[in-house]
Write a structure and sequence with these properties.
single chain; six-stranded mixed β-sheet; alpha+beta; Aminopeptidase; 25% strand; eight-stranded mixed β-sheet
């Protein structure tokens, strides 16, 4: 075990508490100039290894004609406040007015009627998928603020768009097409409330938005059922723009560790490019984050024991465990479309300014990696989409249920030591439970790092696709929303199929996101069936085959059946609505 004293803490976290701004600071902040930024949240903490400002030189950054560039609310207030929805739109409009190479459209309109902007950034400027593909570059999709209390991603991508647009040297916009959704959960962003209520385990800012969207949904659990307008907009953008790389920007929820940011690839064991992302791309980004910015980063997880998340003051931790593999999560979902998928989680107990800076640096480094080798990235994604294309007659085995890997690696993990204080009612720092004090002392502990999944159950997909009856129109519409091809049979046909005979049906005891998730057991039986005219046919032969299988297989642990689309047809001895085609339709 290796201990790091408080004096070494500067490279791992920031001093506490944040210094309140002086009157002179407030006068400077009132100018609203991005270069007047007092970084480190007015705390004196060096960002990214000592730079005074993430991504910008000292002084007031200037645009065309010497005009000062716009700044975010976080920058203007010394990272005491976060940017509102109206300010995001105004910031983007200001960039465009100053000549930034951006095209702005709407990804969606939120449940409460707010615009969810989609920014396309590239030199030369493009505004359509066809124009982007004509450049022959990788297309990257970066999304922030899906959980609207986790605000650093929003602040970081706005600053990046400004700094890329008006930087004096070539940058990622000269090698990539970058799609940015800076405020995905626009409605949640406006539900401002004290940090202690909306994000209990987070170190500021004092007022932040809330996790759900305007429908009360967690948008990062909505990628399969796609009930929210934001989710439908994202799926449409994935289909239209066909991004090569997806990034989703978040903030951690609890464990006290020594990393400025943690990350994850798609965790689904069927995701074709998850091994490349986990074993090649992200280790290189980890090296760059430390060598270039002095940010220690690590695979995402929490300290967890056999009985759940461990006590904060436990001196020895049992293991470091990641989150679920299921495709309802955006990063897991996108990986099943064959692309590179990366989750970013800034450290919630760092000061707000440092979280913005680490997220800024992480996005910059990932995109720089892609920009340095655009042809290699595109070849890699072509491999991923080929692997996701199962095709007619495919005998590939697909993991439809998963479990944590049975043989995890043992690695050193940085653990911060916490102490109890005499007064159990005292809150020593925002986001820290009452009666607990952070020490700034870290120790490397070797423990299982459980950050991978393996197949718990696999299946061989239908050789010639899937069929289901015309009554299941909502299921067909949802498949189409995912970009999956769904045909309607013009005439009745007789075909050899496999039907799934249900042995048991179980429904979750508690509702989740407005649903009681369904699970079935049963067996596949070969039958000859007359399939009526008007039935739906999902053929295989595209890069969305893998996704279609996971949506339609009745034993999939996160498919349409899970989310109650077929409840009316389920029962012991009955056939599940979706059948596998064993021969071509004639």
């Amino acid at each position: 075990m290796k201990a790091f004293p408080t004096s070494a803490r500067a490279t791992l976290s920031c001093p506490r508490p944040a210094q309140r701004p002086t009157q002179a600071m407030r006068r400077t902040l009132a100018l609203g100039l991005s270069g007047a930024l007092l970084m480190a949240g007015a705390s004196g903490c060096a960002l990214g290894g000592g730079s005074a400002r993430a991504g910008a030189s000292a002084g007031v950054p200037r645009g065309p004609g010497g005009l000062p560039l716009p700044s975010t609310r976080a920058e203007r207030t010394g990272h005491l406040e976060t940017t509102s929805h109206a300010e995001v739109l105004g910031f983007l409009d200001s960039l465009v007015a100053m000549g930034a190479p951006l095209a702005i459209s709407d990804l969606a309109t939120s449940a409460e009627g707010r615009r969810v902007p989609l920014v396309v950034a590239s030199r030369p400027r493009v505004s359509t998928p066809a124009e982007a593909r004509a450049l022959g570059r990788p297309i990257v999709y970066v999304q922030a603020n899906i959980h609207a209390g986790e605000v650093e991603g929003k602040e970081a991508v706005l600053a990046l768009l400004r700094d890329w647009s008006f930087g004096r040297r070539p940058n990622v916009l000269d090698s990539l097409v970058v799609l940015v959704v800076p405020i995905y959960n626009a409605d949640g962003n406006e539900k401002l409330a004290p940090q202690a209520r909306n994000r209990g385990a987070q170190n500021g800012p004092a007022q932040i938005g809330e996790r759900p969207n305007g429908m009360g949904l967690d948008l990062n659990r909505d990628y399969i059922k796609a009930e929210a307008p934001e989710s439908r907009g994202a799926l449409a953008a994935f289909t239209a723009w066909q991004p090569d790389l997806f990034m989703d920007l978040h903030t951690t929820n609890g464990s006290y560790h020594g990393y400025a940011l943690t990350y994850s690839p798609s965790l689904h064991p069927a995701a074709p490019l998850a091994p490349f992302t986990a074993d090649t791309l992200l280790p290189e980004i980890r090296r760059r984050m430390k060598s270039r910015h002095d940010f220690a980063v690590f695979p995402y997880g929490n300290f967890t024991g056999a009985d759940g998340r461990e006590g904060l003051t436990a001196t020895e931790k049992s293991g470091w465990w990641t989150y679920e593999h299921k495709q309802r999560f955006g990063t897991n979902y996108f990986g099943l479309r064959g692309g590179i998928s990366i989750l970013s989680e800034a450290y919630s107990h760092d000061p707000f300014a440092r979280r913005v800076a680490s997220t800024y640096a992480f996005v910059q480094e990932v995109l720089s990696y892609a920009a340095e080798q655009p042809a290699a990235i595109r070849r890699r994604v072509e491999q991923g989409t080929r692997a996701a294309t199962l095709g007619t007659g495919s005998r590939a085995s697909v993991a439809i249920r998963a479990r944590f890997h049975s043989r995890p690696d043992t690695q050193p993990v940085l653990v911060e030591r916490l102490e109890r204080v005499a007064d159990s009612t005292l809150q020593t720092e925002p986001g820290v439970p009452r009666g607990i004090r952070r020490t700034g002392v870290y120790a490397e502990q070797r423990m299982p790092v459980v950050d991978r999944f393996e197949a718990a159950e696999s299946t061989t997909p239908a050789p010639h696709g899937y069929v289901f009856a015309a009554e299941w129109t909502k299921a067909a519409d949802l498949l189409r929303a995912h970009g999956v091809r769904v045909d309607i049979l013009p005439t009745a046909v007789t075909a050899t199929v496999q039907v799934f005979e249900v042995d048991s049906v179980s429904m979750a005891a508690r509702p989740f996101q407005g649903h009681r998730e369904a699970t079935v057991t049963g067996r596949w039986l070969e039958r000859s069936r007359t399939i009526p005219a008007g039935s739906f046919h999902v053929p295989l032969g595209s890069s969305l085959d893998l996704l279609a299988v996971l949506l339609l297989e009745p034993r999939s642990d996160d498919g349409l059946l899970t989310w109650n689309h077929f409840d009316a047809a389920l029962g012991k001895g009955r056939e599940a609505p979706v059948a596998r085609l064993l021969a071509p339709l004639r």
